[in-house]
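Task card 7
Instruction: Convert sequence to structure tokens.
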Amino acid sequence: MKKILFLFVWCFPLLLQVGNAQSAASRGGRVYSTYYYQRASHFETLPTSSKDIIFLGNSITDGAEWSELFADCHVKNRGISGDTTDGVYDRLHTILKGNPKKIFLLIGINDIGRGKDNQLVIDGVERIVKRIKAESPRTRLYVQSILPVNPVYGKFAGHTSQWKRIPAINDAIREMAGNEQVEYIDLFSAFADEEGKLKKEYTNDGLHLLGKGYMVWKDVVIRFMKK
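Output:
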């Protein structure tokens, strides 16, 4: 019995390493946070439907209670805190297998925060758009602009210090969406102050939203929910 226990203790870390390597291999060699894998594995086990309306993105999406905001059980949260364009791309299979009715995509600020140049951010969003169109052509896709950020709180400096870059990236995303014949939603204008920073009444850290901010988001997208 002791020998069996010893072999289990010795081999178990190796099995984990193999499992992690397989996960990384399935995602092009990319490795993400433990939270990413927790959420992504959860999404894999949940039922999917062609009636689903998916909000897809990073922590800003993750932070909302979407089904309650719209009083609709078909509206689902598929945000993962810390996610990037690569991360969303690598977990699209869990979403597209159900051929959802609609997807509202918001992604890119973490790519900016990690030092990617503008074109790489745009390319990352475009790659997601092309895959959704190819694998779930009946899904109505809405590409949302990256939200403004605000460095006033001194938090998330890698993200909030880049606030001046966001309008140019959004202009390029808008152009890409037009070329791909998907709808673009301008969230930025509803959240930005006169300088182009995230309005302080909508945030307490310069990056994430307070409840009031989510109500603004709802007001912007509700007409697209009814289409």
